[in-house]
Design goal:
The protein is mostly helical and about 210 residues long. A hairpin with a 5-residue loop joins strand 1 and strand 2. The longest helix has 20 residues. The relative contact order is 0.11.
């Protein structure tokens, strides 16, 4: 009940609004005909097999009931077919409908309460593993100088440096403003339609990013 109220899963209008906004973003991206030639060239049986083998054989079964251990035993013909499916997903910026289902499992926390972990389809996990390098490079290219959650950054060191700068500037009489978030479920309280609207108002369309 707690998580239901946080996610507003019973708000059909909100869910419909989010889906329509996401569809609009997808159509806008497809309209600009993104150049995926280099990315699609990496979707081949050799790289697919490497991606599959990065998972442990005991990795939990995906929500599509496909076991990683099965994928490890796929013959070459099946690997080619799976690559074709993944390329189709990337070209159309869309996953098969069954991959949109996500099961949220509640895990107990040491100090009480719960957190969630998502169980997604194995196809999506494999696909994201194959394009992770491209996603990482995109993150590095578009990162803000103050972002700490990117490759090569050390969050603890960044926090210490930020605190040092605050103390230094305060000592030198400068105006220092620090915003502290104290929300129980921060990432789960983001209102997606508002987020998308604000990004578009700031001219931060995914096309420009």
């Amino acid at each position: 009940d707690i998580w239901c109220s946080i996610w507003h899963t019973d708000d059909k209008q909100l869910v419909d609004t989010m889906l329509q906004m996401i569809k609009a973003i997808r159509e806008e991206l497809l309209h600009h005909n993104p150049d995926l030639h280099n990315l699609l060239a990496t979707i081949n049986p050799t790289n697919l097999k490497k991606a599959i083998n990065t998972f442990k054989t005991k990795t939990a079964t995906g929500l599509d009931f496909v076991m990683i251990a099965w994928l490890m035993r796929l013959p070459d013909e099946a690997l080619h077919e799976l690559c074709a499916i993944i390329r189709h997903c990337l070209q159309n910026l869309a996953l098969p409908t069954q991959q949109l289902a996500v099961a949220m499992v509640l895990l107990g926390k040491k100090n009480g309460g719960t957190r969630t972990i998502a169980i997604i389809g194995s196809l999506e996990r494999i696909m994201m593993q194959m394009i992770r390098q491209d996603v990482t490079q995109w993150g590095l290219r578009t990162a803000n100088p103050h972002d700490t959650a990117i490759k090569g950054k050390q969050p603890y060191l960044e926090t210490a440096l930020r605190s040092y700068r605050l103390e230094r500037d305060t000592y030198n009489g400068k105006l220092v403003v620090k915003v502290l978030y104290d929300l129980e479920k921060f990432f789960d309280t983001i209102h997606v339609p508002t987020l998308i609207t604000q990004l578009q108002a700031a001219n931060l369309s995914l096309i420009h990013i």
